Amino acid sequence: MSSHREAPEISKDPVADSTDVYAFVSPDAPDTVTLIANYIPLQNPAGGPNFYEFGDDVLYEIHIDNDGDGRADVSYQFRFTTRMRTPGCFLYNTGPIRTLDSRNWNRYQTYRLTRVDYDGRRTELGRDLTSPPCNIGPLSTPDYPALARQAVHPVGRGRKVFAGQRAEGFYVDLGAIFDLGDLRPFQNLHNQYGMSVFTQPAPGVNTTKELNVHTLALQVPISELTRDGRRSRDAMDPRATIGVWTTASRRQARIIQDGRGEDSEHGPFVQVSRLGNPLFNEVLVPLGEKDHWNALPPSDDKRFATYVAHPELAALLPGLYPGVFPHLDAYNRSGKSRADLLAILLTGIPKGVVPGFQNNTGTTQADMLRLNTAIPPTASPNILGLIGGDPAGFPNGRRVFDDVVTVELRAIAGATLPLVDPTFTPDAAANAVTDGLTPADVTNPYLTTFPYLGVPYDGYHYPPN
Known about the structure:
Elements lengths: L17 E8 L6 E12 L14 E8 L8 E11 L22 E11 L4 E9 L13 H7 L2 E2 L5 E8 L6 H4 L34 E10 L19 E17 L4 E14 L4 H5 L5 H5 L10 H5 L2 H9 L5 H9 L4 H9 L21 E4 L31 H9 L53
Antiparallel strand pairs: 1-2, 2-9, 3-4, 3-10, 4-5, 5-6, 7-8, 8-9, 10-11, 10-12
């Protein structure tokens, strides 16, 4: 998670595996929205001699729905082309890479960025845009921040784009969570299946620490994304809210050339991966449906709503932590639907639930990040977003540093149920449950400017001491 290796088939295809989606009003350019989609999970920085890269055979897209039907009204497409300067050399680079056009850089990628409107109209925003190299080490990439800055390309009308390697900004204790739902800060309360392995709580461990991802990042004017082409400053204006998700698609047929070590792709593009809200497919959709979910548009998510209304993890928590969640257990046994989760994840939160806030997109149930673009960035952000009193954060879009694991754990545990059912009193643990991590567990810090994710970790210094 957030969506790293979240379904059986896409786990075999990391180049097309979307890991995280972020959408937020840019803190340093508040008339714009920053859209980020990450791919290629869990990258070992010392991944030579064939370092990580986007797929030339993958169509990457970031989609925006601005009329609430769960279908794209605006899409940004990325298509990559890999080139080699010296095919007879086995090395990725033959000397220090100081500029994006360095002759020392052997294998490099360029890309084309295209905007597609709801009516199919296509506008090419940029071509032959260069991605930066991977961060190899102090001899090969001696000033990586400078290289990355060269790869931030203006593409007209106040837009910026970046496509390349960044530090993984999502922090999560995968090792504990997928060890039968263990949360280290509360592991002594776990039923432990009678084994008595843990007698004391322990701090969380960031499984993604000092790993990298490949990032598609766009900064575009808000007026380019809204349904009527304007920026509303009224948070109660339904036209201010957009839905955001990413997809990756491959050609329908692949032919492997016998004896040549090459293949070719044919036919129309077919969606093989998508991601909107963090952890949706990972935690809520059952194993037998995950590949199916990845192939569908958000507009079809009504068929998965039952897994949101009656989440398996909410049913498991009282058994995994005996006596800790009695109120949640009683609510589960009542058979009532989780209207709070349905709103947060599938329709957005309507007016009147949280004072002064809404990010509702209507009645269509669709998994999308919903961002109310009329809510400005806050000077003192809270990593718990809306439940921490900060409406500029998740689930109002998602910032790179938001603690989405804690927010979603607490929501599933019942912390948000009183918003829709005032008769429900959350268990004391519901507002305390966490995997025990914060942005302090990310070694390379987030940036305060585009593309916001930190400098990728270099291979020379990996693994960390």
